[in-house]
Amino acid sequence: MDLHEIYLQVRRQDIAYIKFIVESYELLGILRTVDSEEAVIVLLVLEDSLTLAREVLAALAGEVDLKEVPRPAGLGGDWLLGDLAIHGRDAGEET
Question: Which CATH number is 3-90 given?
């Protein structure tokens, strides 16, 4: 099955709420923070749940500020299992 990545720019204070809503739907997807400084998150969704995920995000957009953004530059091909590029920057390393 295909895994879809939906990147979102949100307000930092809304990340926990969005995560709570996503997790309240069984098997909807996995939410990860990509860049806590810029409040960019990613919702990882399987093909079977994509329609529901889009519906949930549309409903959430009526409650919190969120907008879909392109995949941030600098993320490796398998960034979920490796370090995110942003971690190097946070640690004072060059990326």
Answer: 3.30.70
